[in-house]
Every structure is written in structure tokens, then in C-alpha cells.
Amino acid sequence: MATRLAHEAGALLLDVRRRDGGHLDAASLRAAGDRSAQEFLAAALASARPADAVLSEEAADDLARLEAERVWIIDPLDGTKEYAEGRSDWAVHVALWERGELAAGAVALPGRAVTLSTDPAPEVPSTRRGSDEQPWRIAVSRSRAPAVAENVARVLPAELVPMGSAGYKVASVVLGEADGYVHAGGQYQWDSAAPVAVARAAGLHASRLDGSPLRYNDANPYLPDLLVARPELADALLAASSGSATDPAPAVRSHT
């Protein structure tokens, strides 16, 4: 279900961009995409899994999910800026949390006609990177690569590769186009739940920057930092990232 819904929401978003991209400004196109994908996913989940709770970036959170055994954690459009710019590095996230753990997930990359899922789990390609001639590639934010990533690049050494959405950056590691993804400075659970589920299914390392576990369906959805990496690179990245400051957790969003 996660795979199907992520794929279908992605197809819908492509239709919205084709239909409205020529006459809406960037802000309006981003809003139209967010709204269309949220409405589709909310209706599909309500119909197919009415007893399950949902945590979405684009919907109010009444915290009823904290009493639920199954919670869908979704980001209907991850990378709205890239989406509105006509780029391909945006994604749709659909994950299922069940009894304390991520149980399933899918990340659609509609701009590339690719959907990655926990079932079947992707196979991460082998790589020959890690030398002076071909350094490790670390995916980072297009707009603000964190200072910790700059430190990682010096220590390994590594090449920093700017990309759009969080889901796309994790997907780049799964697809073998990057070797790790380092993020600090603020994210929410919907930014990483589905990508982390897919990355773990593929055998990749996924944790906080200090190596501690990523926890989902907490009352405060803020989850400020993330490290996803090839297993052979994880220890080096954790060491280079250790002691890095992250943003203090903001207050829980208003639940209205």
C-alpha cells in the first residue's frame, strides 16, 4: 500500500505541475501540489485503513496517534521548492509505524519515474569510491549545507553533493549515486520516516548524528538531525560528526 500510494501521489503531482505550472507563480504551485497530494493520501488512507492514525506535514495533529498501534507518517510533497522549479529532486513519502517501529515505507521520485520501497528491498550498488582520485560523495542540502558536513568533507575526505529534498538525498544513497547523507539543523519525522525505512531495508545505516536511534511517533514531531550511509562508511561519518551541535527542539506545533 505504501508503494502504491506514494507512486499514485507522485503521478498526481506531475499532472498538477503540467496543468498549472505555466500560469501559477512558484508559491501557488507549491501550495497546489501540497494540497492535491495531501487530499489524495488522506482520502486513500481513510478509505483503506480507517482505524489507523496519520501524521502528516500538511494536516493538523491532534495527538490521537499516540494511542494508536499503527500510524502512517507521510510527507505528501517533500521538496516543494524543487517541485515548483521544475526539477526532479523532490519526493513523496509514505511510511507505516507499527508498535514502536517503522514497519514499511516507500519513497517515490516522480521526476525520475522511480519508487523505492521496503518490499521488495532495494539492492544498493557497489562502489569504488573512497580514494583521492574518487572521493566519497556526501549528499547535502542545496540551500545550506550544515557545518558538520563541511567537517566530514575535510576529515574523510569527501565531495559534498547538493541536492533537493531529504527523500531524494536518502534515495541517492540507496541508488549508489552518493555514499552518505548528513543533515543537521532541523527536520521533522515526516521528512525521514519513509526514507529511513527504505534505507534500512536496503541494509544502510540510519541514525541520529550522535549514533542514537531515530524515534518516530513521539509527541513532538521534531527530529533535527540525520545520518544515512553505506555500512562501510558509517563509523567514519559518525566519528567526523560527533559533538556537532544541532538546533534545540522547538515547541510542539499547535494542535488545532
Automatic annotation (TrEMBL):
CDD domains recorded: CysQ (cd01638)
Classification via Pfam families: Inositol_P (PF00459)
Binding residues annotated for Mg(2+), in chain numbering: E57, D75, L77, D78, D191
Top-rank taxon, per record: Bacteria
A GO BP entry: 3'-phosphoadenosine 5'-phosphosulfate metabolic process
An example Gene Ontology molecular-function term: 3'(2'),5'-bisphosphate nucleotidase activity
Cofactors: Mg(2+)
PANTHER family: 3'(2'),5'-BISPHOSPHATE NUCLEOTIDASE 1
Protein known as: 3'(2'),5'-bisphosphate nucleotidase CysQ
Organism field: Phytoactinopolyspora alkaliphila
